[in-house]
Every structure is written in structure tokens, then in C-alpha cells.
């Protein structure tokens, strides 16, 4: 156990972890069951193109989301792009900048302009009051993002969309199994998109899904994700290939089998971090509304440099030296990155403020209570002695410069 700043690995102390601790380790579930499913696909010699495993995965995801239609895809980025095409979007799409680059990329890749809206600092999600101000004659849609699984201000966004005749989609990459006002994420807006990337609470190696109660939209998305083929196998319009494979669905189903176990473990970890940091000034674990269901896949802490004397980035270095790899989800924000620096329509002060202080810490089924205790010890030493850590690090940097 580390007792003080001298024990930090950044300053020559022993590393706290022999094996690196990561954010986003996959929730794999029962390996034997996965191989059974894979064997079954191989025995049947049916590997893709809407096979039985993908169909089962779609049914189960639709059930989790409480919607009629689910179209599984190769990843969520492709799913977002399919929505842009299927809904005939053009011009501008309003979205938050505090998101993974894929939300903006999906739109830009198809020649549309993302327009970034500031967030409500209390939730990290887009501030619906500011969305209205960004609507122009070129706007065709709003993309909300349920950041870290915390649902957007759905009702307010639905109103802005309706008032302006805009489509409303949600990037729900983080929000499988979450609820808002007791309603399940999946059924909001015109459609929502889940990600089943390896790092998500349910993974299909890589994967995504579009969920919607709009049967017409679902039909079009289903055709477009399979080269634009109709039921009869005739290409009716220019589509793409964004299908999920049977191997991916085998993983997705197996990971889904373990979904409740993963959530329970994530919740335990989240509560453990909250208890560890309860008394630590300037380090706040981002909270969730306990009346709602969440998957707790992301443990996000806000580091207040004014209070702790240490910046989030240096804390990341401190942790990395101990073999703990945290993540800056999501910093820099999209508009602070090269592809989008020229795309800023209005100031984004709350986005920049939050992006500068958020840090995702390791959680998931592979992270134990003891791991969390040791990660928390490191954070407590570094943030509890922030000014000293910062000045020692600056002196060292100057010496090596
Ligand atoms: N919208 C939002 C809001 C999103 O967050 C994402 C994706 C998307 C859309 C697009 O979804 P997809 O098209 O990917 O389905 C990762 C993921 O690649 C990305 O899917 C995810 N969001 C984003 C939040 O995280 P990176 O650049 O952080 O990945 P990487 O390789 O640095 O890995 C992150 C951590 O996960 C590391 O600590 C290591 C660990 N890891 C990673 C992989 C791939 C594992 O333990 N095992 C693994 O197999 O983007």
C-alpha cells in the first residue's frame, strides 16, 4: 500500500499493478456457450446475411429496448450513417461536441455538416434550450447523445424537433438497458443507435443496432444495410454493406446472456468508487439518477484542478505510471479536434469546461473491489497532494527538457 507522494511510481515508487488495469474490458460471458454458438454456425454453414444468430440477437435487443424493430449492424458508426441515408437527411445536423468522434464523423462522412450545441453541465448532455437557437433553414435533424448512459432531455428535444419539423435520432451507444422517466432507451425520437463494440456493456466484438418503432424507417434501413436489396433480393436503391456476421452475433448473444451480471458488478464498482472518493475534495464521481435504470458501464470522475491542485491530464499520467490506464471520455471535445475546428457556430463553454476535467476509471466484471481500493489510494494520494505532485512533476520535466 502506498503511503505518500514518494511512493507514487511516477516518482520512482513500485508500480501498484503488475498487470495493466484498463477501462472497457469486454464482458465476454460464458465462453463455452459462445463456442457452442460458433460451432452451430459452422455446422450449419451459415455465416452472415441475416442468419439465425443475427435474427435472435435482433429480437433480444428489441426486447431490451422495448421496440418493434431492431436491425443489427457491423458497428454503431455505420448504423448512424444508415440513419442519415434512410431518413434522407441533408444540410446540417445539430449534435453535442462532447461525444465520441464517431457521432460527428458519421454525418460529415456523408457530406453533411455537424453543428455543435453546448451541454447542460449538470448532465453532460445537450442543452435543449440551446438547440433551438442553432436551427437554420439547412437543419434537417438533431442527434442527441446519451452520454455515459445518462439519457438526454428527451422530452424537450422531442418538442424542439416537432416545432421545427426536424428528425430526432439518439446515439445510444452507451445506453443499452438504461431508462428515462421509467421508459426504456431505444424508443425515443425517430430511432436510436446502440454500439456493441468490445468496450461496451454488451459486445459483439464489433457491432451496432438501429432500434425504432417506425416500421417504414426500419424497412428502409434493413434494405440499405444489405446493398439496398428488397425482400426479393432485388437492389431497389444504392445501399451499403453494414451487416452483422453470425460470429459477431454469437458473441453478442453470449454477452447479452451476462448483461444483468455485468450491470450488477458495474453498480457495485460504481458504489465502491463513490464511497472511496466521498471525502476527497475536488474529485467527484459523476452521479446517476437512482430512480432510473442504468448499466453503470462508465465510472466518470471530475477532477477540479482549482481544488486539488492537479490537472486531470497529470492524474492520468500518475495512474498510467502505476499501470492503470484511464480514458479521457471525451476530451478534447469534437470541436477541439482538427476535423471540426472550423465548424463552431456558437461558443461551447460548458463543453470545454467538462471536457477538461473528466476521467473514466476502470470498471467492469474484471475489476475487483481490491483493484478499486488500490486505484482510489493512488487518486487520493495524488489529488490530496495535488500541488506537490504538480510541482515535482514540473521540476522533473524542466530537468529533462
Ligand atoms: N457514439 C458514441 C457515443 C461512442 O462512444 C461510440 C464508440 C460510437 C458512437 C461508435 O461506436 P462503434 O462504431 O465503435 O460501434 C473506444 C471504442 O473503439 C469506441 O467504440 C467507443 N465508442 C469509445 C468510447 O471507446 P477508444 O479509442 O477509446 O478505444 P481503445 O482501443 O483505446 O480502447 C479503449 C479501452 O478499452 C482501453 O482501455 C483498452 C480496452 N479494450 C479495448 C479493446 C478494443 C479492451 O480491453 N479490449 C478490446 O478489445 O474507442
Automatic annotation (TrEMBL):
Range of residues in the leader sequence: none
InterPro entries named in the record: DegT/StrS_aminotransferase, PLP_DesI, PyrdxlP-dep_Trfase, PyrdxlP-dep_Trfase_major, PyrdxlP-dep_Trfase_small
Key words of the record: Aminotransferase, Pyridoxal phosphate, Transferase
Cited Gene3D superfamilies: Aspartate Aminotransferase, domain 1, Type I PLP-dependent aspartate aminotransferase-like (Major domain)
Keyword Transferase among UniProt keywords: yes
Record GO terms (molecular function): transaminase activity
Keyword flag Transferase: yes
Family: Belongs to the DegT/DnrJ/EryC1 family.
Official protein name in the record: dTDP-4-dehydro-6-deoxyglucose aminotransferase
Lineage: Bacteria, Bacillati, Actinomycetota, Actinomycetes, Pseudonocardiales
Amino acid at each position: 500500500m502506498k503511503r505518500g507522494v514518494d511512493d507514487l511510481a511516477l516518482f520512482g515508487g513500485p508500480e501498484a499493478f503488475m498487470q495493466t488495469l484498463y477501462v472497457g474490458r469486454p464482458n465476454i460471458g460464458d465462453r463455452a456457450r459462445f463456442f457452442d454458438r460458433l460451432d452451430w454456425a459452422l455446422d450449419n454453414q451459415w455465416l452472415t446475411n441475416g442468419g439465425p444468430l443475427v435474427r435472435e440477437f435482433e429480437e433480444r435487443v428489441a426486447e431490451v429496448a422495448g421496440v418493434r424493430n431492431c436491425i443489427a449492424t457491423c458497428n454503431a458508426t455505420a448504423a448512424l450513417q444508415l440513419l442519415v441515408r434512410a431518413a434522407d437527411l441533408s444540410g446540417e445536423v445539430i449534435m453535442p461536441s462532447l461525444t465520441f468522434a464517431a457521432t460527428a464523423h458519421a454525418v460529415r462522412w456523408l457530406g453533411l455538416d455537424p453543428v455543435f450545441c453546448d451541454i447542460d453541465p449538470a448532465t453532460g448532455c445537450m442543452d435543449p434550450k440551446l438547440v433551438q437557437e442553432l436551427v437554420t433553414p439547412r437543419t434537417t435533424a438533431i442527434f442527441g447523445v446519451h452520454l455515459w448512459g445518462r439519457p438526454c432531455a428527451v422530452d424537450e428535444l422531442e418538442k424542439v424537433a416537432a416545432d421545427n419539423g426536424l428528425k430526432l435520432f439518439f446515439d445510444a451507444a452507451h445506453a443499452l438497458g438504461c431508462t428515462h422517466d421509467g421508459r426504456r432507451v431505444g424508443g425515443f425520437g425517430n430511432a436510436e443507435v446502440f454500439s456493441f463494440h468490445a468496450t461496451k456493456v454488451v459486445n459483439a466484438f464489433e457491432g451496432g443496432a438501429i432500434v425504432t418503432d417506425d416500421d417504414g424507417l426500419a424497412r428502409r434501413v434493413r434494405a440499405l444495410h444489405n446493398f439496398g436489396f428488397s425482400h426479393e433480393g432485388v437492389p431497389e436503391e444504392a445501399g451499403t454493406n453494414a451487416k452483422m456476421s453470425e460470429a459477431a452475433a454469437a458473441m453478442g448473444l453470449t454477452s447479452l446472456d451476462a448483461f444483468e451480471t455485468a450491470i450488477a458488478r458495474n453498480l457495485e464498482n460504481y458504489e465502491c468508487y463513490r464511497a472511496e472518493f466521498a471525502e476527497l475534495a475536488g474529485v467527484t464521481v459523476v452521479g446517476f439518477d437512482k430512480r432510473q435504470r442504468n448499466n453503470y458501464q462508465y465510472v466518470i470522475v471530475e477532477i477540479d484542478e482549482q481544488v486539488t491542485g492537479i490537472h486531470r491530464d497529470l492524474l492520468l499520467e500518475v495512474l498510467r505510471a502505476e499501470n492503470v490506464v484511464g480514458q479521457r471520455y471525451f476530451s478534447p471535445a469534437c470541436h477541439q479536434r482538427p476535423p471540426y475546428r472550423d465548424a463552431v457556430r456558437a461558443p461551447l463553454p460548458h463543453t470545454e469546461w467538462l471536457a477538461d476535467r473528466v476521467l473514466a476509471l476502470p470498471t467492469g466484471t474484471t475489476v475487483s473491489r481490491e483493484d478499486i481500493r488500490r486505484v482510489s489510494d493512488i487518486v487520493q494520494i495524488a489529488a490530496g497532494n495535488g500541488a506537490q505532485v504538480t510541482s515535482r512533476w514540473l521540476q522533473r520535466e524542466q530537468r529533462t527538457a
